[in-house]
Specification:
Layout (H helix, E strand, L loop, with lengths): L3 H6 L3 H9 L8 H12 L2 H23 L2
Length: 68
Amino acid sequence: MQSLKEEAEDISPSALKIAKVTQTISTTTPQELARALMRQEGDASIARARLQAMRKLLGEVERYLTSD
């Protein structure tokens, strides 16, 4: 079994960034996020695809958290 320090070292920087975003959920409006996605992606179809991928990832995260 890994120690907490070893587990923390196994976490990618991108996963840590996504986890940090969860702390700002209550201060971000859906419209603001939509505008940010459009600015980033430049296309509504790509922005929606990113959201679908995020939704899938979050579903898998939730299953992982409840499987303990």
